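P.,

For your records, the input lines for the assembly:
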Amino acid sequence: MQLQTAVTRLLDIEHPVLLAPMDLVADAPLAAAVIRAGGYGFLGGGYGEEGWLLRELAALVPAARKTHCPFGVGFITWSLARQPRLLEIALEQGPSAVWLSFGDPAPFAPRIKAAGAKLVCQVQTEAMARQALDAGADILVAQGAEAGGHGVSRGSLALVPALVDLAGPDVPVVAAGGIADGRGLAAALMLGASGVALGTRFYATVEAAGFDAAKRRIVEASGDDSLRSVVFDISRRNVWPAPFTGRCLYNEHLRRWAGRELDLMRALGTEGERYAAARVSGDFDTAAVIAGEASGLIHDVPRAGELIRRLVEEAAGLLSAAPGFLAENSRQSLASMEAK
Ligand SMILES: Cc1cc2nc3c(=O)[nH]c(=O)nc-3n(C[C@H](O)[C@H](O)[C@H](O)COP(=O)(O)O)c2cc1C
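Structure tokens returned:
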């Protein structure tokens, strides 16, 4: 079963499913697994650690070339601005797309396009979408507040179609935030999106980098168990520019400090050290599991390829059942009108 959209055509992929470039989590094994299964894999360049980027590109690029599959690299825009050479390192390896999120993409857009890569801009508001379109975005990713990780406050249901209208017919929109199964993919397509970008769902896969304990917490969490806050950014001494906050699963640390951010800043001498040690040892009572509301829809840790197959099959099944649903509804309303 295949779902063909403007995004599958533009990115030359089989399925309209993108691996979001999750900082450190979306490494070469996960990106390669997504690519092999016919999705699009972005390496999670995140804040930009040169050693990590070189290592993961060296692992991913030969595999992608061997199978003639396109791949991409994602960066956090405000952080890339501090070390723009990382973009050159990525572009040298011939990604077919570069994903920028959280900041003005304009300074990097000409270089990305000159290298022949598509510019994919993840945005969280209509104003940010206009900025990305002005910069020449080839694809907009509409990120709703349900998303794991950093974001803003708009919900996907109204944001996605608003950005589809704004972008017009020439710039496809990809929906991100709260999508974990075929229902989410089918709904995104109905909202006018041409694909989906998944973070939290791909985190809980076999190939994703990260502790098994973090993946287990995602599986066990309900959709109520996450909060958008600045607690983990303060704790790891990585404060973001406004208006971005980060969505993570509740744990002891978040419960203790949410709403008491000033106190946390005052206690950062000890709390910062404790937090850094917890990140290294995988103590998720303190360290954050970065994940979103989609956690409530996640009940297992499959291989990424199996996940993509499931998503597409379920979405295709729902979409092909839709005309029957319409007929059923009109039969029901006809019957109720006749009964009156
Ligand atoms: C663990 C994790 C790390 C993330 N890191 C980044 C990042 O470095 N850059 C980025 O653009 N988005 C990042 N995101 C957000 C994703 O791009 C995407 O918007 C989000 O995962 C979609 O929502 P979902 O988590 O409900 O699938 C991250 C998300 C998660 C869950």
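Two observations worth noting. Residues 304-339 form the longest helix (36 residues). The chain has 16 helices and eleven strands.

Regards
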